[in-house]
Amino acid sequence: MRVQGWRWVSVLCAVVLAVPLVLPAAAGAQSGGAYLDGAEPWTESDCAGEVPIVVGSDAAAQSDIYSAVTLAGVVGTDCVILAGPRGAAMPAAQRARLDAAAAGGYVVGGTAAVPDAKLTGRVMTRLGGADRWATAQIIGNEASYLADGTRPDSPTMSETALTVPADVSEPGVFLDGAEPWFAADCAGDVPIVVGSDAAAQSDIYSAVTLAGVLGTDCVVLAGPRDSPMPASQQTRLDAAAGGGFVLGGIAAVPTAKIAGRDMTRLGGASRWETAQLVGRRASGDTIAGTSTSIEPSIVESEEIGSETETVTEEEESMGFVLEIEANPTWMAEYQAIEDFAAACGLDYEEQYECDDPEDTQTLIQMIEDYHGDECGNFELGYGCSNLSPRESWALNSLRACPRGWAMASNLRCYHPNHDLYYSPYAYHPPSEANSQGVPADYWDGHG
């Protein structure tokens, strides 16, 4: 199965945070792709005696998997069973986990995503809506019911006629069908603020789940992390009730975007931990989350999302930097390949080849030369034969960033004290981290 990704580097480096990319299956579990990376504490755990949560694991079920981890946080289990693609049998390793689990449990998604035949011999509670957004909200409703016996109202049918404001549309962000949450009137409602660039897609699903818990339809899209909050969303937030929640870390939703509000931030070290935090909060665990009023003081900047946004005043006085551009030598090599790929007509959506077969071979040779002997043979749509996607991305981080730093999907380098240091496939060996920021000689021939 071919992968879809973010330019050529995503194919060879697995730099996609929100777009499926196929990895070798781990113990027969990860039939769903690279978006499962980091979910192993839930998808590969010992299920003996645990409450099971079964969910599909093909690309179309990505949002349901986040909802499943959220539900796991509600019921206090780590037993998330990956049922495999809808047209295939449940992977044997996952079937064994299900067989070892306690009786009962939950299924996330409709019968098309997880057919009843995959659950033979079990009576389970199915939680599935008409689309991914409805399923996310149903999970939230169930969480509320388990916590206190109530099921908050869903957005009214009249709200389905709304349209998502034009100023929140971003490349790589899927919002179709979510109008009842992102365009509704927030007057007097509890607000939930969430980032809305491609890296925040999983948090957006979690936000709708939390909305189902609270009985609110006021999900406010904060915009990309390097841009101000969209005007339409700021208006909605201003009209909302005091307090509320923020989903994601400070890098995803900077404190400056919610200035003047004391909100509860639910943000883990990964998207999976954030999803579970939502579940824990939904279950009545008030310890889950932190107040935004105690977040570090931020150096003022005219441009929200600039690197100074994540640096405290004390750190700035020390010359401490948490985010820098990638090494220009690496960027030049990368850009040369990007330019050639664009000129040759490489199609990232329909086919992984140039208009001219000779150009395809030239492009492959350029990428193999870029990687060196570590790559082996490179195939567009699959990657290097001798490197896993994680190893490919680690190699890029080593070439593009100071030792111990990580390069994320935006081609910028992040210090371990920055949230994006923990992005999927970022290379970050803590023992090598430079705790004093960028070395003075970093730009002198670094490559």
Please give the share of residues in helix.
Answer: 25-40%
Distance between the termini: 34 Å
| Number of domains as seen in the coordinates | 3
Spatial order of the strands forming the largest sheet? 6-5-7-8-9
Beta-strand percentage?
5-15%
| Number of helical segments with 4 or more residues | 13
Mean pLDDT: 75
Strand segment tally: 14
Q: What is the N-to-C order of secondary-structure elements (H for helix, E for strand)?
A: HHEHEHEEHHEHEHEEHEHEHHEEHEE
Structural class: alpha/beta
What gross morphology would you assign? globular
Question: Which stretches are poorly predicted, pLDDT < 50 over at least 5 residues?
Answer: 1-34, 296-320, 428-447
Please tag this protein with its features:
3 domains; 447 residues; disordered N terminus; alpha/beta; disordered C terminus; 13 helices; five-stranded mixed beta sheet; globular; single chain; four-stranded parallel beta sheet
What does this structure look like?
With 447 residues, the chain is an alpha/beta fold. It folds into three domains: 7-127, no CATH class; 148-294, no CATH class; 323-432, no CATH class. 31% of the residues lie in helices and 9% in strands. It has 13 helices and 14 strands. A five-stranded mixed β-sheet has the order 6-5-7-8-9, sandwiched between helices. Strands 2-1-3-4 form a four-stranded parallel β-sheet, with helices on both faces. Helix 3 links the parallel strand 1 (53-55) and strand 2. The longest helix is centred in the N-terminal third of the chain and has 17 residues, at 132-148. The protein starts with 6 loop residues before the first helix and ends in a 33-residue tail after the last strand.
